[in-house]
Amino acid sequence: MSIGGIFKEYFVNPILYNTGYNTVNTLTYALILGLASLGAYKVLKRMGIKYDNAFFRALIPYMILGSFSRALTDATIIPRTFLTVTPGIYLVMGVITFSSLLITHRFFEDWRRIFLYTGWSLIGIDFFLLITHLDRVNLTAEPLKYFIPFVLLAEGVIYLLTKKIRLVRDNSYLFYAHFYDATTTFVGVDFMGYWEQHVLPRYLINFTGTAAIMYLLKFTVLLIALYLMGEIEETESDKELMDFIKMVIFILGFAPGTRNLLRMLMGV
Q: What is the pLDDT of residue 63?
C-alpha cells in the first residue's frame, strides 16, 4: 500500500465515515499532542507568562468552547469538516486560544481578566448558534437521571481516595475531571445507545460488556502517569513543565466529558 493509501485508510477515512480511532492514528495523534504541548509550554515561557491557578481558570471557557463547538458539529449546526472534528478541532481551538492570549497579553495590563471574558464571549456565539438552530437538536434532560447519581457516586469515591492515597489527594482535580469523563462515557454507552470511538476503551468495553470499565482504566492510567511524572521531576523547571502537562491531562478529561454530556443533552 502506498503512503497516500495508508494515510487515507488510517487518517482520512475514519474522519469521513466516522468509524472511530485506530491504533495508527491514535499513536500519531498522541505524539503530535505531546510535541504541541511542549511547544506551547516553551512559547508561554518565552512570553513570560507563568502557568498558575489564575491562568488555569482563565483557560476553562476555552475548554468549554471546544467541547461546545464539537457538540454543535455532532448536531450538524456547525459543518463537519477536518477542522471541526478531532484532531482538527484541537488545532482550531489552539489557534483561537493562543491568538486571544497573544492579543490580550500584548494590549491589556489586566490581560488575564480580558482573556477570560473573551473566552466566555466566544461561548456566547456557540450558544447563539444553538438557540437559532433548535430544529436540529432534540433537547432532553433524560441523560441527567443517570448522569447525576453516577457522577456524584464517582466523585464521592475520588473524595474518599484523597483521604487514603497521597497521589490522588495532590492531584484530585485530575481524577475528578477524568471520572466526570468516565461517567459521561458510561451513561452514554450503557444507557443512551452511544458507542466508544477510542481503540483501547472500545476493546475493554466490548470485552467486559460495560463502559463502567472506564473508571478503572482512567484511574490506573492516571495513577501510573502521575507516579512516573513525580519520579522525573527534580528541579523547579521540571515542576513547571509537569504542572503544564497536568493541565493538558485535565483538558483530555474535562473537554471530552463536556462534549459527551452536551451531545446527550442535545439528543444527537
A: 97
